[in-house]
Every structure is written in structure tokens, then in C-alpha cells.
Amino acid sequence: MDDPLIEPEPAERELGTAPVKSLFARYTAITLAGMLAQMAMVVLEGLIIGNGLGPLGLASVTVILPLELLNLALGGALGMGTAAAAGRRLGSGDAAGAQRVFTQGFWLAAYTLVALSATIALFAPYIATLLGATPDIHDDVTAFIRLLMCFYPFCTLGQLLCALLRTDEKPSLASALAVIASAMSLAWLYVCVYVLNLGFAATGAYYGMTTGLWFLAILRFQFSKRSSFRVTLSGMRLSRDVCGAIIWQGLPLFLVQAASLLYTVVINNYLGSLGGDGDLAAFAVINGYVVYLLNMLCLSATYGLQPIASFNCGARRHDRLRELVRTSMVGSFSLLTAACALAIAFATPISAFFAGDDPDLVALTASHFLPLLVCAPFGFLAQIASAYFQAVGRERTSIVLGVCRYLLFAIPLIATMANAFGIRGVWWAQPPADLLAAALAIALCAREMARLKREEADLDLHGERPLHETPSDDVARPPEM
Predict the structure, then answer these.
(1) How far apart are CA 38 and CA 35, in angstroms?
(2) Which of UniProt's keywords are assigned here (predicted)?
(3) Under 8 Å CB-to-CB from 427, ≥6 apart: which residues?
(4) What is the reported pTM?
(5) CA–CA separation, 242 vs 399, rounded Å?
(6) 198, 249, 335, 443: which has the highest count of C-beta atoms within 10 A?
(7) Are 217 and 165 in contact (CB under 8 A)?
(8) CA angle, residues 22, 25, 26, in degrees to nearest 5
(9) 413 Rama sector, left if φ>0, alpha if ψ -120 to 50, beta otherwise
(10) CA–CA distance, 144 with 39 (Å, rounded to integer)
(11) What is the chain's pLDDT, residue by residue, as a tens digit (481 residues)?
């Protein structure tokens, strides 16, 4: 049996009572505060690698980026899947069920990542080749992969635990861990590159520490009596039903990251064959740093909306879900539009910051900001919408939205436009892909809003909504159980 935990009643939880706009803004802002530390870390990482290791270091970054995306894919999928399943049970008042989901998700992630890390380390030379490593950097990339795999299980478990901290209404603690991890990781990167002169391969430990240190969240769950969750030994024996539900609910976010991983591998190979190390380095700056930072802004919004959506789905608060869809889509688009506009406006100084004293590389990099970023805010709408549908258990819709930007649209367009326009077509394939993804996201969200309105009306018609409660309440209350 799982240990009994002190669990607030659903009616006491702010996820079901606080105004949606302010709740989403606060959870997103708190998450963003932690992400800002990650963003600063990524910026300084680029400065250290670009200036300390040069163009070959930057080329290595874009080659190993798919492994970082795989880390985010697994951690995000298992974390969001576990958090969504647990959050919906909390919203419906099933605290014991939520605890069981948590402990099963923890052990599922542990088993999966230990096996995967060992496999990747064993076949590291072949994986380096598959990822597009050129002969000049192949040995360093291979050593990097093997060192990173030592940290991989902790990276995924750390992301899972921080996702559950937000469901446990402790988003500030998750952000604090991100700040601590960023500071410690950067200290190691600086020492490894400038003091010990260990080269690129040793930065595998840096990449592992960035999210691996989030595993310290385990202390909150194991030693705080106010936590809703705890890792128990009884959960080591996995349940097919519970693990299947976690995997299915986490699958959309995994496919979002997996599609991005595949996109990176595809474009790396096109840039390497049609261009060279300079094009790979330019793409490393834009995709590995600028787009990565934009993706972290987007993730702040998705992490902010997930606990609200899953809890209120369990509580059948369709009015709050409708408001959340509107708020998250409009707010996220506005934030990302401003960020992309600034990046395009300052493309040259940003490129110089990362590329160091190589004027040709700076000019090449700056020239490609426009095609990759001009429509990016539209493309990110599909990711926001995918996170919402994942949180409320609409996994098929979430999967379609999660993969559409890169897998369904960008990769086919890259292949088509590369054949027609060469290297220029590779760079300019992204804007039409972003616009197509946005059109699909908006259409599916509009259909979801109409569905929620119908179901809300049905609840009122059949008297299932408490008589004192109306959809227009300034402070929404969950339905009585």
C-alpha cells in the first residue's frame, strides 16, 4: 500500500478556485523565472563554446542537439503524462489514485532511462555518425555522448519531479531548482573549457547537470508532510494499466520533441551536404540557442497551463477550460511575437555574440534569422494547443498538433524546396510550415471551444452545476463532489 499523505480537498486547491487569467499568468511567470536562469545559461554556454572552442565547437553543438531534444522529449513526456494523469485525479477528488500514478511514473522513467542510456553509450560511435558528425568532430562527439549518458536518467527524472511540483502547487520550488542547476552547470562549463582545457567532450557533464540537478526535487516529495506525492517502493512493480495511461498521455509531448529531433537531423544533413561546417555552425547558433530560448518561453506557457487544465478537466469546469484556451493562446502568441521581433532586429549582434571573431560566420548566421523566425510565433501556437489537449486527455488531437509543425509540414517542405532552390530552399522552408501549423491549431481550438460551451450548457441544463455557481463568477469554484 502507498503511504497515506496529507491531501487538501479539491475545493481548497487554487487550481480550481483562483481566477484563470491571473492563475495562468502567475504559473507561467513563476515557471518563466526558472526558465530565465536556463536561458541565461544557454546564452553564456554559447558564449563560452563559441569563443572557447570556435566554429568546430558550435558545429558539435548542433550535431549533439538531437540528444538534448531527446532528453527534453522523454522528460517532458513522462513528466507531463504523469502530471496530467495525477492532476485529473486530484481534480476529481481521487488523492490515492493520484499518488499511485506518481509513483508508477517515477519508476517507469527510472527503468526506461537506465536501459536507454546504456544502449546509447554502447553504440555512441554509430549514433555520432547518424547525427551528422563530420570527421573533424566525430571523436569528440562520441566521447560527449558517453559522458552525457551517465547523467541521462537523472535528467529525465528531474523533469518528471519538477512537473509534479507544479501539480503539487509548488511552481516556485521547480523554478528555484532550475536556477541552482543553471549556476552550477555554468561553473563547470567555464572550468572545463577555460581552466582545465578539456575540450568539447567534457561538456557532456555540463549538459547532464542542466536538468539532472532537478532530481533534487525528490527531497520535497520524500520529506515534506504537506506534499501530495511520495515515491514508494511498492510502485517498483509496474502496472500495465497505469503505465499505459501515463505513456499515452505523455506521447503527444514526446512526439513534439521527437519531431523537432528528426527535423534537426534532416536539416543538419541537408546543410552539411549542400553547404558545410559554416552552415552547420550558423544553424547551431539560431536553432541551438535562439530557437531553443524561444522554445523555453513556449514551454513556460505549456507548463503554466498544464496543471490548471488537467485539474479543471477532472473537476468538469468547462467554463474555466474555455477561458484557459483563450488566455493561453493569445498570451503566448503575444509574448513570442515580441521575442522573435527583437531577435530579428538584433540578428547581427546576437550572431557576433555567439560566433566570436569570425566575420564571415557572423554575416552568414545573421542572414538566416529572418526565414527561421519571421513566422515562428504562429508555429508555436500548435505546441501550446497540443499541451492543452494533452492535459485534458485529448491525446489524438494533441499528437496531430504536436507533430504537424516539423514532421507533417517542415520536413516535406525542406525536401521539396531543397530540390528546387538548393541551400536557400532549406532555410526558407520554415515560414510556410509555421503558417500551416497555426491554421490547424486555431481551427482545432475553435472546435474545442464550441464543444466546451455545449457541455457546459448540458451541465447547467441537467442541474449538475451547483446552484450558487455560474460560469461568469470572478473566482470560479469547483463543482461539489
Answers:
(1) 5
(2) Cell membrane, Membrane, Transmembrane, Transmembrane helix
(3) 368, 371, 372
(4) 0.67
(5) 20
(6) 249
(7) yes
(8) 85
(9) alpha
(10) 22
(11) 344 444 444 446 777 777 888 888 888 888 777 777 766 776 676 667 666 666 666 666 667 777 877 787 788 788 888 887 887 787 777 778 888 888 888 999 899 899 999 998 898 888 888 776 667 777 777 888 888 888 889 988 998 898 888 877 777 888 888 888 888 888 887 787 777 777 666 677 777 788 888 888 888 888 877 777 888 887 788 888 888 888 887 777 777 777 877 887 788 788 777 776 677 778 878 887 788 788 888 888 888 888 888 888 887 888 888 889 999 999 999 999 999 999 999 988 888 877 666 788 888 888 889 998 999 999 999 989 998 998 887 888 988 998 899 989 999 999 899 888 888 888 899 999 999 999 999 999 999 988 888 887 776 665 554 433 433 333 333 333 3
Q: Which three cell numbers stand for residue 6?
A: 496529507
**Grid cell digits, residue 413:** 517542405
Long-range contacts of 116-124 (CB under 8 A, 24+ apart): 116/74, 116/152, 117/149, 117/150, 117/152, 117/153, 118/149, 120/67, 120/145, 120/149, 120/152, 121/145, 121/146, 121/149, 124/149
- List the chain domain ranges: 20-461
